[in-house]
Amino acid sequence: MSTSNLLRPEVQAFIHAHEQDDVVQLVLQGHQYPDIPIKAVAAQIQARQKAKHKFPDWYQQAGVIFPPTLSVEQASSEITARYKASLMRGKHLVDLSGGMGIDTYYLSQSFQYTDYVEQQEALVALAAHNFQTLGQSQIKTHHSTAEEFLEKLSSKAECLYLDPARRDEQKRKVFRLEDCTPNVVALRDVLLDKGKKVLIKTAPLLDIHAALEELSHVEKVVVIAVNQDCKEVLYLLDREMEGETQMETIHFLHDSVQNFVFSRSQEERAEVTYAEPLSYLYEPNATILKAGAFKAIAEAFQMHKLHPNSHLYTSNELQSHFPGRIFRIKEVSKYHKKSLKALIPSGKANITTRNFPDSVQQIRKKTGIKEGGDTYIFATTAQDNKNILLITEKI
To answer: For site-directed labelling of 175, which of 275, 343, 359, 377 has its Cα 20 to 30 A away?
Structure first.
């Protein structure tokens, strides 16, 4: 991908001047700008609109050229890439699925030198330009497949990193680790032979328990979310690891970070009690649910579950460090329009369902409750299997 036209001062000025424009309309009006490569510029504007909040460092750096929108969408965010960089450090890192280069850039800051490997030649050229622009000259780029590079790698690296593609040749999403590209299951033994540690990133849709069965020497599994959105699952492999895998959840919020660590055996052994709704209600964040810490979280924070399948928790004592949303329970209501209207005179509330037969839309239709306001309704099933509505306020 040539960057020379896009780096011309007048083109860069045009991109920044039209950064908030509708790119479709901009292309349609392209005849008004004969000296501007309008389609390439529109692609840059569209990519920058997505990059502004996802990776602000790159967005703010003059001279950075972004790849097509799909690569921008598939890349890690800056906040998750920085976190991955905190997991390892050493002399030599190899990123075997370089892509746009966001992970490579931040991971490289924990290593003396880094090899970036990518099979799409256009992305390799673009990454090389951006690494130079960003001042990371110790990153060496390679146009190669992961398999070819591993075969030629003579010395062992401190860490190998992979973010395998999760779409097949027909661009359809895949849901098994062995169907990703490269196939990390088939490469497992080679990876552990060539790297002291191996870090694998997958999408949240992939099943954690199935992945653990397919991999080996997994030291840690980390489930990461940003502002309620589960983004990725990491598997850190260490060829000397023989003990139990640690499960960690980390949730980045605007002003805080929620973290919880447990093990699968801890989850299996945890003893859970059940209770009717008490003073407080707790809704686990997305990472807790994805990691499957349904019983361990209750035991760790000394709280009760409302029902085995509801995954909502309650206590009389406030557990302010709980990794999720916390609510004060004001009333417990039957699923009845008249009863609910009396408790919510404004007729507005935010509704969430957990283990409940009706959807949010059906509840609104049956009760007439509109969206909005400061009241939160949790429609769920109690321990006696009765459907209830919890009228709460957020803490």
So the answer is: 359
Does the pTM surpass 0.70? The reply is: yes
Sheet architecture: strand order including 280-284: 304-305, 313-315, 280-284, 324-334, 387-394, 375-381, 350-354
**Extended beta strands in 266-344, E state:** 280-284, 304-305, 313-315, 324-334
Please give the distance of CA 188 from its chain centroid, rounded to a whole number: 23
C-beta separation of 202 from 164 below 8 A: yes
Peptide bond into 182 cis (omega under 30): yes
Asked if 17 and 45 touch (Cβ cutoff 8 Å), the reply is no
Q: Could you report the per-residue pLDDT of 3-52, keeping only the tens digit for each?
A: 888 999 999 999 999 999 999 999 999 999 999 999 999 999 999 999 99
User: In this structure, are residues 275 and 312 in contact, taking their beta carbons and an 8 Å threshold?
Assistant: no
Task: In whole angstroms, give the CA distance from residue 203 to residue 199.
Answer: 14
Q: In what order do the strands lie in the sheet with 139-143?
A: 139-143, 111-118, 90-95, 157-162, 195-202, 229-238, 218-226, 246-252, 257-263
User: Measured between alpha carbons, how far is 274 from 298 in angstroms, rounded to an integer?
Assistant: 10
Is residue 237 within 8 Å of residue 192, measured between CB atoms? Answer: yes
Radius of gyration over alpha carbons of the chain, in Å? 25
pLDDT band at 72 (very low <50, low <70, confident <90, very high): very high
Q: How far apart are CA 126 and CA 123, in angstroms?
A: 5
> How many angstroms separate the CA atoms of 346 and 344, rounded?
5
The helix/strand/coil state of 55 is coil
SS3 372: coil
